[in-house]
């Protein structure tokens, strides 16, 4: 696991210490500063997308080529990520969160996948991989990446974080789609509509199961799609 220190109060940053050859990647616009021995590159998102044929035999790899081609194409066409590697000795690299807001970590042990909304990822340890993309209809679709493997994820939120487990609330919670930051694969996420006073449809996210959900109290990142879409 990467060594780190989260600093600040209403405007937080995270300082990461990388050992030789240790790697981080993150979304564009989160990088603050680094020591000279940290190599920085911009690479396509597909660099971290897990090969769907990994661990399969020859037939499985052949079948997955057709099944996964759409996902790999979508990943290639999406926004790139910044990549940081400690080339010699110990290096330092700092990232900023969402202002005003908080940064927190998700420690992935490889037993669960985490889906993190795009725009909320600050940085991720290079040992993690993107298992796929979860995207819904434009306007209220959840646009996020599913992370698998072992390592540390750093996520940011406007306002404060709120942790929920639907199981503790009778198995189901309904939330403002724009407040959903991340959730694990033990919950199911779907979008529903509630009729407004003037005939408009207001999206509401329904989350079911016994797992972890992370919300934010703020209004989210400007220009980002509101989360939604059926799992």
What are its keywords?
9% helix, elongated, 231 residues, disordered C terminus, 19 strands, six-stranded antiparallel beta sheet, mainly beta, Double-stranded beta-helix, 1 helix
Give a quick summary of the entry:
The protein has 1 helix and 19 strands. It is mainly beta and 231 residues long. The chain has a single domain (3-216), classed as Mitochondrial biogenesis AIM24 (Double-stranded beta-helix, 4-Layer Sandwich).
Q: Low-confidence spans: pLDDT under 50, at least 5 residues?
A: 59-77, 222-231
Using DSSP, what is the number of strands? Answer: 19
- Secondary structure class reads mainly beta
Structural domains: how many: 1
For the termini, the CA-CA separation is 30 Å
Biggest sheet layout: 6 strands, antiparallel
Mean pLDDT: 83
Which sequence of strands runs across the widest sheet? 5-6-3-10-13-8
Q: How large is the radius of gyration?
A: 18 Å
CATH fold-level name = Double-stranded beta-helix
**What share of the residues does DSSP label as strand, in percent?**
over 45%
- Taken in chain order, the helices and strands follow as EEEEEHEEEEEEEEEEEEEE
Q: How much helicity do the residues have?
A: under 10%
CATH architectural designation: 4-Layer Sandwich
CATH class: Alpha Beta
Rough shape?
elongated
Counted by DSSP, the helix tally is: 1
CATH homologous superfamily label:
Mitochondrial biogenesis AIM24
């Amino acid at each position: 696991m990467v060594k780190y220190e989260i600093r600040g109060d209403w405007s937080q940053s995270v300082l990461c210490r990388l050992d030789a050859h240790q790697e981080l990647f993150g979304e564009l616009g989160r990088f603050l500063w680094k020591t000279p021995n940290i190599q920085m590159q911009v690479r396509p998102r597909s660099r971290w997308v897990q090969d769907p044929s990994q661990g399969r035999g020859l037939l499985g790899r052949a079948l997955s080529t057709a099944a996964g081609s759409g996902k790999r194409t979508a990943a290639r066409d999406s926004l790139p990520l910044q990549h940081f590697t400690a080339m010699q000795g110990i290096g330092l690299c700092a990232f900023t969160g969402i202002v005003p807001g908080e940064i927190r970590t998700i420690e992935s042990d490889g037993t669960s996948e985490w889906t993190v909304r795009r725009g909320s990822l600050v940085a991720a340890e290079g040992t993690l991989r993107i298992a796929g993309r979860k995207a819904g209809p434009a306007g209220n679709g959840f646009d996020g990446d599913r992370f698998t493997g072992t390592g540390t994820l750093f996520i940011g939120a406007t306002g404060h974080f709120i942790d929920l487990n639907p199981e503790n609330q009778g198995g189901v919670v309904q939330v403002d789609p724009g407040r959903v930051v991340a959730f694990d694969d033990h919950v199911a996420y779907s979008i529903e509509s509630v009729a407004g006073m003037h005939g408009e449809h207001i999206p509401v996210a329904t989350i079911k199961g016994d797992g972890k959900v992370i919300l934010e109290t703020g209004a989210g990142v400007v220009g980002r799609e509101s989360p939604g879409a059926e799992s």
